[in-house]
Amino acid sequence: MGTSLLITAVVVLVVSTGVNGCPPADREALLAFKAALHESYLGIFSNWTGTDCCQYWYGVICDPETKRVADISLRGEFDGPFIQKAGLTRYMNGSISPAICKLERLSSIVISDWKGISGIIPKCIASLPFLRILDLIGNQISGEIPYDIGKLSRLTVLNVADNRITGRIPRSIVNLSSLMHLDLRNNSISGTIPQDFGKLRMLSRALLSGNRISGPIPYTISYIYRLSDIDLSMNRISGPIPESIGKMAVLATLNLDGNMISGKLPATLMNSSISILNLSRNAIEGNIPDVFGPRSYFMIMDLSYNNLKGPIPKSIASASYIGHLDLSHNHLCGSIPVGSWFEHLEASSFVNNDCLCGKPLKTC
Ligand SMILES: *[C@@H]1O[C@H](CO)[C@@H](O)[C@H](O)[C@H]1NC(C)=O
Ligand SMILES: *[C@@H]1O[C@H](CO)[C@@H](O)[C@H](O)[C@H]1NC(C)=O
Ligand SMILES: *[C@@H]1O[C@H](CO)[C@@H](O)[C@H](O)[C@H]1NC(C)=O
Ligand SMILES: *[C@@H]1O[C@H](CO)[C@@H](O)[C@H](O)[C@H]1NC(C)=O
Ligand SMILES: *[C@@H]1O[C@H](CO)[C@@H](O)[C@H](O)[C@H]1NC(C)=O
Ligand SMILES: *[C@@H]1O[C@H](CO)[C@@H](O)[C@H](O)[C@H]1NC(C)=O
Predict the structure, then answer these.
(1) pTM metric for this prediction
(2) In this structure, how many other beta carbons lie within 10 angstroms of the beta carbon of residue 326?
(3) Candidate from 112, 142, 186, 207 with most ligand 3 atoms within 8 A of CB, to mutate
(4) From the CB of 183, is ligand 3 less than 6 Å away?
(5) HSE on the CB side for 294, CA within 13 Å?
(6) What separation in Å is there between the alpha carbon of 171 and the centre of ligand 2?
(7) Which of 225, 277, 236, 294 is nearest to 260 (CA)?
(8) Nearest alpha carbon, ligand 1 atom 7
(9) Any bridge partners for residue 205, and if so which?
(10) Atom number, ligand 1, closest to the C-alpha of residue 80
């Protein structure tokens, strides 16, 4: 009798908190999260009062059925209710409290472009089993990416660009079997890219530029069928460009500029699906492969500041389009081919080579 009364009481309690909104434990966790942050210009936390964190709490979204907190979305850049308040400073400091990990049903954490949030990524984030989006771009976050981030089997977006992250790319990252968008740009990440990077079969964008990443480009990267955008620029990458990269089905952008890449230009790159190719400022040597054809369509082809020698291949005139061509600062020699899309090119595309001649340079 006593037990069933108790059960009834518990059921009533659970149902009533369900009706009234978020569970008290989620509310407590949110308040602890808020306490570690300071935002005094927009007042984004001014609505974080009262018992129902699922209504009116700016940037908090609950699952309509479970009433558990599902999304935290605090964007410093584009934001709905604050658009009218343009002119106000979008700045927040403080840190991301580990209390956030008590929101165990979180599927999305977006705390982006606040410029001043520091501290580390709480290690416990790797234990949020439902997490799909982690976006912390544009803060001052330091420390390392949690080594066991690979446990987040549902994670589709990992964006910590424009912060002060150090340490290596965790080896476990290759276990993020749902990952589609990886953005680590503009941090201080060192070490090598995991050799088995190609295990990230769902990946479509791999953006790692502006770090201190060294070692070779893992050839397994070309196994990633959906990969359309590879940006490894401004790092310390060495070794050759794997030939298989030019055979990737949907690769549209390949930016490897500002590294220490050596070896020859793979012929496969010249007639690939790539339309933005920047290999500037490396140590690439040998001739430019004479394999251009109708499949060669480049919005940008920047091969400047390398050690390329020999002539500009005749077949380049048969490319369907090259919008911006830069072959300057190499050791090329011979006459510049003529072709329809060549008409708009200026001398700056060809200067500082050994002995190039012909329009737009001096006649041969
Ligand atoms: C804050 O809550 C009030 C109602 O309590 C609502 O009118 C207002 O739009 C909310 N502000 C934000 C930024 O969500
Ligand atoms: C946080 O920013 C405020 C200005 O919004 C400033 O007064 C305060 O000193 C900052 N706190 C820290 C720890 O940087
Ligand atoms: C890199 O991030 C810092 C903030 O941590 C920012 O000030 C800087 O403009 C960023 N650089 C680039 C090239 O995005
Ligand atoms: C990736 O996951 C597998 C299976 O769960 C595990 O055995 C392995 O240790 C993980 N790899 C890394 C580098 O964490
Ligand atoms: C290619 O990369 C170099 C070096 O990072 C940069 O200066 C140049 O502007 C880039 N080229 C194009 C066309 O964007
Ligand atoms: C692209 O160039 C490679 C290397 O010469 C050649 O084997 C291949 O047949 C070419 N592919 C196309 C589609 O032109």
Answers:
(1) 0.91
(2) 20
(3) 186
(4) no
(5) 0
(6) 36
(7) 236
(8) 56
(9) 181, 229
(10) 13
Q: Give the Å distances, CA to CA, from 339 to 119, 317, 322, 345.
A: 56, 5, 11, 11
Q: At the fourth CATH level, which superfamily is domain 189-364? A: Ribonuclease Inhibitor (3.80.10.10)
- The span from the CA of 259 to the CA of 283, in Å, is 8
**Which sequence spans correspond to the domains of the chain?**
189-364
CB under 8 Å to 4, separation ≥6 — which residues?
A: none
| Local structure of residue 163 (DSSP, 8 states) | S
Match 């989006």 to its residue by tokens.
133
User: Which residue's CA is the nearest one to ligand 2's atom 14?
Assistant: 93
* Ligand 2 centroid from CA 49, angstroms: 22
The model's pLDDT over 12-30, given as tens digits with 9 standing for 90+, comes to 344 444 446 889 999 999 9
Distance 54 CA to ligand 4 centre (A): 36
pLDDT at 221 over 80: yes
